[in-house]
Amino acid sequence: MIELHYVRTSNGLKVAIMLEEVAIEYRVIEYDIFAGDHLVPAFKAINPNHKLPAIIDLDPDDRLGAFRVFETGAILVYLAEKTARFLPAEGRGRMEALQWLAWQISGLGPMLGQGYHFARYAPEGQQYGIDRYTREARRLLAVLDHQLNGNTFVAGHYSIADMACWPWVQNIANLDIAMSEFPAIQRWSDTIRRRPAVQRAITSSATEVPSAYLRKRMTLTGEQWSNLFGEGLSNAVNPLS
Ligand SMILES: N[C@@H](CCC(=O)N[C@@H](CS)C(=O)NCC(=O)O)C(=O)O
Predict the structure, then answer these.
(1) CA of 149 to the centre of ligand 1 (A)
(2) Ordered domains of the chain (ranges, CATH)
(3) Residue 52 C-alpha to ligand 1 middle, in angstroms?
(4) Which of 67, 68, 136, 172 would you call most buried, defined as having the most Cβ atoms within 10 angstroms of its Cβ?
(5) How far, CA to CA in Å, does 10 sit from each of 93, 110, 202, 213, 241?
């Protein structure tokens, strides 16, 4: 049994898709990050970085007791190795998937994430941030489109690299980027969307990301802003004495 500490975002969805793909038993524990559910001291033991998602494997293969894993890249590798699915055990196929996974968690995710921050949360009128991250998003999407031109999946075979990239690519309209600008991404995205496991993850009442969560412009209360971007978040890591 896997405990999935979850938030309804692209990062959360990566792991929900993997859990559905490998058909492992899991239980969702949902967090409201606007309310600061992830900032409580108890969550530090699950993720010292106070971010979601994270998992706890209640039946780890080493039988040494419950084991927590944070960071989506590490979670996807952990689940792939636990189940021997969606990541070749060795060789070039493994490195192909790991390279694209690293590319997603260090590039595609953070750049799109910063773009969404400027487009949705920052005070209006900060066009520099929107332009900077939209330009980088377009560059990264062109890299992905090039890779998918001639490859059915990101690393050749369907893998955790696809599961990492796919949820992030679904929200690019927030940066006024149309998926139709990238034909190979569009074809790949449609192929993945049709997978039964992906359908289960995106429609399950426990894990679906409601479209309201993807609204282009968000207005936060002072407390919500603090929990996501301000003192609430930093105080969770360094509590004031
Ligand atoms: N690099 C991390 C990113 C995790 C992350 O940023 N999660 C967001 C939700 S998508 C979060 O927890 N935000 C709450 C906050 O920053 O306070 C991963 O891949 O797991």
Answers:
(1) 30
(2) 2-86+199-237 (3.40.30.10), 91-195 (1.20.1050.10)
(3) 5
(4) 172
(5) 25, 12, 10, 11, 35
**pTM of the entire predicted model:** 0.95
- pLDDT tens for 198-237 read 999 999 999 999 887 776 788 888 888 899 888 888 888 8
Q: How far apart are the C-alpha atoms of 174 and 241, rounded to whole Å? A: 40
Which residue has the CA at smallest separation from atom 20 of ligand 1?
71
Q: Dump pLDDT digits (tens) for 13-70.
A: 999 999 999 999 999 999 999 999 999 999 999 999 999 999 999 999 999 999 999 9
Q: How far is CA 101 from CA 89, 216, 221, in A?
A: 15, 27, 35
DSSP element (H, E) containing 70 = strand 67-70
- Which atom of ligand 1 lies closest to the CA of 232? 17
Q: Does ligand 1 lie within 6 Å of residue 39's CB atom? A: no
The tens digit of pLDDT for each residue in 107-139 reads: 999 999 999 999 999 988 889 999 999 999 999
Amino acid occupying residue 55:
I
Q: Return the best residue to mutate from 10, 11, 105 for the ligand 1 pocket (most ligand atoms within 8 A of CB).
A: 11
Q: What is the pLDDT of residues 50-61, one digit of tens each?
A: 999 999 999 999
Task: Examine residue 123 and say whether the peptide bond preceding it is cis (omega within 30 degrees of 0).
Answer: no
